[in-house]
Amino acid sequence: MSFSFKALLLTMCLALLPLAFGYWVNATARHAPTDARVAGRCTRYCEQHGCPHATAANSPAFFRLKPLYVATIKFLAMGGMGLYAAANIAFYVLLIPALLLWLTYGALRNMSTIRRLKQQPRS
């Protein structure tokens, strides 16, 4: 088995790990996903309308990252709300994961190349 194949195989296993975790979280959740507003917990309503549960005391990161979140939504909606879903999928489901996979594969391939070069006798 070549080093680049091992790096590719490890990269693919790492890429499938978040999908498996997401499936597990959704399969074992106490509450089914809903778009309705629920007073005691966050739902998809919070994602779509801003979280009414978030306060500066219990979610300081939410308030620090809110300008970035709003800017991202505006950027993705530049083509109109009809293209928002397609832009969202292209950016978050295709572009960002592909970039991370490429970087991970490159790092693993370089690691194996460095390891192989260290084992070669010096001339």
UniProtKB/TrEMBL annotation:
The chain crosses the membrane at residues 83-108. Residues 1-22 form the signal peptide. This is DUF2752 domain-containing protein. It comes from Hymenobacter saemangeumensis. Keywords: Membrane, Signal, Transmembrane, Transmembrane helix.
